Amino acid sequence: MCGIVGYCGNKNAGEIILNGLKKMEYRGYDSAGMSLVGQDKLKTIKSIGKLENLKKIYKENPIKGSVGIGHTRWATHGEVSLANAHPHLNTSETIALVHNGIIENYQDLKKELENLDYSFKSKTDTEVIVQLIDYYYNGNLLNAVLKSVKRLKGSYALGVISMNNPSELIAVRYKSPLIVGLSDDGYFISSELSSLVEYTNKVIYMENNEIAQFSLNNEYKFFNYNLDEIQKEITNIDLDSQSISKNGFDHYMLKEIFEQPDAIRNTLEKRIVENKIKLGDSFFTKEEIEKFNKIYIIACGTAFHAGEVAKFAIQKFTGRQVICDIASEFNYNQKFIDENTLTIFVSQSGETADTLLALENAKKLGAKILAIVNSENSTMTREADKVIYCYCGPEISVASTKAYTSQLLQLYLIALDMADKLGTMSKEEITDILEELMLIPGKIEFILSNKDDFRDIAEDIKNESSVYYTGRGIDFISAKEGALKLKEISYIHTEAMASGELKHGSIALMEKNTKIIAVVTQNFTVDKIASNLEELKSRGADIYTITTFNNSTVNQNSKQIIKIPETIDILAPFLSIIPSQFIAYYTSLAKGNDVDKPRNLAKSVTVE
Ligand code: F6R
């Protein structure tokens, strides 16, 4: 959700900024821009649409400078237009600023500035910040930025440069991620690691309420908001640029679908030693678990679906009730949480604003906080009491695939660990499940090897105006995740419906050739769902069934059976989601959509 970059060093900032923006384009891609300071001039270029357009402008009219900032936008305030694209400038066009986040009190500040005769060119919340800086500016850029950010409510990561301070880059962070890269060639700032790894492996993670000053004479300083200088720890990262390349695949999504077996193997190797789960300090002790009176799982989107599937596993393994809540709903509803409640937050990015706010709310009520996160060093990892990492490598495609199965795995291991500590399962029962889990990567590989089968289904559904998913129990959650995948990248209206609920209204939508994708993997509901499919078929629906069974009623009522390997029922979600990921991928491709960067979306949703 918007990405910012900045550079201050002995190279030309233009190329570095464009390069950095390219790596983060998936965060937001409706417009882009950059500003450079060089030879006492401030130059800005902007474009609408993909970054390629900005690159073109830069190639035709290269701008030069050793200090610069750049931005790739996902519109929040104001439509997609050049005026609303970042960087934003003060009236005299001497100061430029890029922003990731949302300023909640921008209307009040705007009025205040308008009363001081400031005028505004854009509809963004960001422009007020640069005009505020202008207002406070008296030659000292750092002070002006600091005075301005103290007036802001909301969230921000900012990069600021000025023509009158041509050798300086100022960066500041509050509730939006910002990372600093250090190299012999200069200093970099970025919303994420991916755009830094090409230049350096030495990074500093900025915390809330920190402001940094970088200068061309090889100096950098960090301050708190009282302007006390602070010492920051330098972290050596081992992320390589290979892991964020497409590695020969046409799209990141396809690459990430294929990475799932290895991602699962990596976690199993790390967390299972001699058939025993080793979560160590990452999870709670037996005594702590025994005290939990309630378990909440809170997340958004795909991560929420991982939580909903895990609810079945935790309840089955531990006999404890689990409440799942969408973060944005949790935040504004009554909460039944106290110091004995375990709250589990699931997030690929660790930066999702709704989930972070939910975490903050749960913390205020005294709950114990466990975060399941993929992005190391993200905000969520710092706010939680305990963190379990997904270790599935950077996920670049906006549509989440490998993060989902990795989240599932971490949650299942937690469920088993809890069952072990609470004594709700025997060692043998746990070992049986672990042994079956070890087989999951190979079974996913079998489905991957048949990927071309899904192209035909994509051809069948690509021109539909609606597609429906259906399932019961845990299969209904896999259906919800399948529907989310399909709708977000194919733009076909897709809805998941609980099979038993169809007759209570939704079946009215069925007509000849309505396309249904059914998920059927659970022994104790297979006969029930078989009848539901019969009801759909008799209304003319074309049913594509993802199933572990060879069930005659299911077979008879399906237009096509998508047979997946058998496993124990509770582990079926690891397998049943893979066909849905492919169906979504190939449908998006068949429709000529941008698979990795679907419209209106962004990878990291850092606004509420
Ligand atoms: C869908 C998708 C989103 C995210 C959601 C939460 O494919 O990726 O629904 O799952 O925005 O994001 P994280 O996991 O980063 O908190």
In a nutshell, what does this entry contain?
The protein is α/β, with parallel strands linked by helices. It has 3 domains: 3-241, Aminohydrolase, N-terminal nucleophile (Ntn) domain (Glutamine Phosphoribosylpyrophosphate, subunit 1, domain 1); 252-447, 3-Layer(aba) Sandwich (Rossmann fold); 453-590, 3-Layer(aba) Sandwich (Rossmann fold). The model has no long low-confidence stretch (mean pLDDT 94).
Key traits:
single chain, Glutamine Phosphoribosylpyrophosphate, subunit 1, domain 1, Rossmann fold, eight-stranded antiparallel β-sheet, 19 helices, 27 strands, binds fructose -6-phosphate
Task: Give an account of the 3D structure.
The protein has 3 domains: 3-241, Glutamine Phosphoribosylpyrophosphate, subunit 1, domain 1 (4-Layer Sandwich), CATH 3.60.20.10; 252-447, Rossmann fold; 453-590, Rossmann fold, CATH 3.40.50.10490. Helix 4 packs across helix 5 (141-149), helix 9 (301-318) runs antiparallel to helix 16 (474-490) and helix 15 (453-461) packs across helix 19 (572-590). 37% of the residues lie in helices and 24% in strands. The chain is an alpha/beta fold and 608 residues long. The mean pLDDT is 94. Strands 3-2-4-1-10-9-11-15 form an 8-stranded antiparallel β-sheet, with helices on one face. Strands 5-6-7-8-12-13-14 form a 7-stranded antiparallel β-sheet. The site of fructose -6-phosphate (F6R) has 15 residues, from helix 9 and helix 16.
Strand-helix topology:
Elements: E1 3-9, H1 13-24, E2 31-38, E3 41-48, H2 51-60, E4 67-73, E5 88-89, E6 95-103, H3 106-115, H4 127-136, H5 141-149, E7 154-162, E8 168-174, E9 179-183, E10 186-190, E11 202-205, E12 210-215, E13 219-224, E14 229-230, E15 235-236, H6 252-258, H7 260-271, E16 272-273, E17 276-277, H8 286-291, E18 294-299, H9 301-318, E19 322-326, H10 327-330, E20 341-347, H11 353-364, E21 368-373, H12 379-383, E22 386-389, H13 402-422, H14 427-449, H15 453-461, E23 466-471, H16 474-490, E24 493-498, E25 515-520, H17 526-537, E26 542-547, H18 552-557, E27 560-563, H19 572-590
Parallel strand pairs: 18-19, 18-20, 20-21, 21-22, 23-24, 23-25, 25-26, 26-27
Antiparallel strand pairs: 1-4, 1-10, 2-3, 2-4, 5-6, 6-7, 7-8, 8-12, 9-10, 9-11, 11-15, 12-13, 13-14, 16-17
Helix pairs in contact: 1-2, 3-4, 4-5, 7-13, 7-14, 9-13, 9-16, 14-19, 15-19, 16-19
Bound molecules: fructose -6-phosphate (F6R).
